[in-house]
User: What shape does this take?
Amino acid sequence: MNWDDVRIFLAVARAGQILGAARRLELNHATVSRRVATLEDALGAKLFRRLTTGSELTPAGERFLGVAERMEADMIAARSELAGGDEAVSGTVRIGAPDGFGVAYLASRLGTLTAQHPDLKIQLVPVPRSFSLSRREADIAITTERPSEGRLVAQKLVDYSLGLYASRAYADANGLPASQAELKAHRLVGYVPDLVFSPSLAYAQEFSPDWDAAFSISSALGQVEAVRSGAGIGILHAFIARSLPELVPVAAAKPIRRAYWLVYHESVRPLRRIQAVAGFITKAVEREKRLFG
Assistant: This one.
């Protein structure tokens, strides 16, 4: 069995299509298709169903995926061990993160890491969505829940608070509610319910069982900007809201707690660049833990 054929199989499985895998691998579409066929012949099994929308793993392909990922992990570990202490921290690491944490916290700090390692490239993707580590949509993901499935390494970064906030201009013009009952009389800013990508982020009912937002935005930072503009009262990350003097806390409901987790696929654990980036984020958050309280 040729390792390059296995590597190409993994790329197709993760991309869900031969064309997408070919682009990632910078290979010809026909070459990728031929190498997959060669692997299938060597194994005596069909690994993919060819569909009009892409390539779907067959039951045999699903079984072989686990084998291929273990081969990949062994190959990565072998390369790392042979390189030893002489291996530079280099290459590209893509970090997927919720937009609040990614933009408001990470973006201003990761430049220090790239300055320390000139051959390291960071791609930060701070958007309100989840990332598939098995499909390599990201190398490291910051999540709001600990993953329960897959061959993933997860460590808790920090607990953070969410609370009610309004702009000073809104408070001066409308006053502030002192209870949940009074909250109903105010304009509310919230998230778009059917676009919430994690159950832990569907928290509006914890502030008021009758929460009914007049203005809904799928981005956490978009909600911050709407509240800053005076659009209404919103549920904001405390570590962001406290940095903006034009915002004031609203005492109508107590803050709630959530957590950030740092997660990556087990197969990339030996890579120095993954350990360097994961270690940097972990240490930065630990040093500034008070921001999130």
